[in-house]
Specification:
The protein is α/β, with parallel strands linked by helices. The protein folds into two domains: 138 residues, Alpha-Beta Complex (Quinone Oxidoreductase, Chain A, domain 1), CATH 3.90.180; 141 residues, 3-Layer(aba) Sandwich (Rossmann fold). Helix content is 26%, strand content 27%. Bound molecules: NADP nicotinamide-adenine-dinucleotide phosphate. NADP nicotinamide-adenine-dinucleotide phosphate (NAP) binds next to helix 1, helix 3 and helix 4. It comes from Streptomyces similanensis. It holds the Pfam family ADH_N. InterPro entries: ADH-like_N, ER, GroES-like_sf, NAD(P)-bd_dom_sf, Zinc-ADH_QOR/CCCR.
């Protein structure tokens, strides 16, 4: 089968299409004929070699999120999975390929009306948005800032905050055009990446911040929490924050602020599955919108990664074998 591996760590040109043997599902796994592959930020991080210390080597077959049709099952798996359209988490490898395998507990059947491309924009990131808002104890009427809202986590967080009755849904993004697209998803105010702009009626403080960005600017946004505000860090696409950012929390002691990290790895599998399943059903009904930036053939993985690197992706880019 055709697959995309990292020939050399570094920029997108280091990716290469190769022929490799198709994987065979082991005990507890299903085999999938892949129809859509979600291209995530973590794939770019692995491609650059930034996770080499965690055992990722050149030659690695990228990809963690696919959708397609189950073609075979391993020992101990109900044969009725065969022929079903599914979404699957493949771990941190094996997704950029014509065929993939996944543990059956990481596989979810797709409802009618949900395309494979839609599924790989929502399956991984949608639950993160849900649980991050839950972790932030978001309540109707509160003002919410989604920092880094134009990514796959952000576009869902914006929609969930808006329909959850937020008093304001404020976003940061890099351009007015991206801001308009976020307004279309429910944002009420658009800030630039540094937190400026937003207009005269933009809230000056936030009850909840869902932060995908981190980076050197994080303390500025901590300072903009209202009294009893909750800041939940879900990603670091802008790099690590300054090491002493916690001193801002202590300096604002009398505001009773909270800072939390959130990883969906800390949520029990059945809970994640239930939320993913509900979100898939909502997306199939059009109640929750998926945002596919572009669908490219698997052989254009280099272009897909270049688009990610230049920051032009809005939502998620999808590859199809
Ligand atoms: N917590 C979890 O369980 C979990 C699960 C999966 C992934 N993650 C993490 O979530 C992140 C990826 O999420 P995603 O796919 O939604 O993000 P993404 O698409 O990679 O980025 C989100 C947005 O952030 C903005 N951005 C990028 N670089 C920035 C910078 N240097 N400064 C300010 N803004 C910047 C960009 O929008 P603009 O250009 O419009 O500003 C981008 O569209 C990664 O850090 C990943 O490790 C966390």
């Amino acid at each position: 089968m055709r697959a995309v591996v990292i020939r050399t760590f570094g920029d997108a040109d280091g990716l290469e299409v190769v022929e490799v043997p198709a994987p065979v599902p082991g005990p507890g796994q299903v085999g999938i004929a892949v129809a859509a592959i979600g291209v995530g930020g973590v794939d770019a991080v692995i491609r650059r070699g930034q996770l080499a210390a965690y055992g990722f080597r050149e030659g690695h077959l990228l990809g963690s999120e696919v959708a397609g049709t189950v073609t075979s099952v391993g020992a101990g798996v109900d044969a009725s999975w065969t022929g079903r359209r599914v979404w699957a988490f493949t771990g941190l490898s094996g997704g950029y390929a014509e065929r993939a395998v996944a543990a059956v507990e990481d596989v979810l059947a797709l409802p009618e009306g949900l395309t494979c491309a839609d599924a790989v924009t929502l399956g991984g990131s949608g639950p993160v948005a849900h649980f991050a808002l839950e972790r932030a104890r978001f309540a109707p009427g509160e003002s919410v800032l989604v920092r880094g809202a134009a990514g796959s986590i952000g576009v869902t967080a914006v929609q969930l905050a808006a329909r959850g009755g937020a008093g304001a849904v404020v976003v940061t993004t890099a351009s007015a055009e991206r801001g308009d697209r976020l307004r279309d998803l429910g944002a009420t105010h658009v800030l630039d990446r540094s937190g400026g702009g937003g207009g005269p009626d933009a809230p000056s403080g936030f009850d909840v911040v869902i932060d995908v960005v981190g980076g050197p600017r994080l303390p500025y946004f901590l300072d903009r929490l209202n009294a009893n505000g909750r800041f939940v860090a879900v990603g670091v696409v802008g790099g690590q924050p300054p090491a002493d950012f916690g001193t801002r929390l202590l300096a604002a002691f009398r505001k009773s602020l909270s800072f939390a990290t959130f990883s969906s790895d800390s949520v029990p599998g059945p809970e994640r599955r239930a939320v993913r399943s509900a979100q898939f059903a909502e997306a199939a009904r059009g109640v929750l919108r998926t945002v596919v930036h572009e669908v490219l053939p698997l052989g254009e993985a280099v272009s897909a990664h270049r688009r990610m690197d230049t920051g032009e992706v809005f939502g998620r880019i999808v590859l199809t074998p």
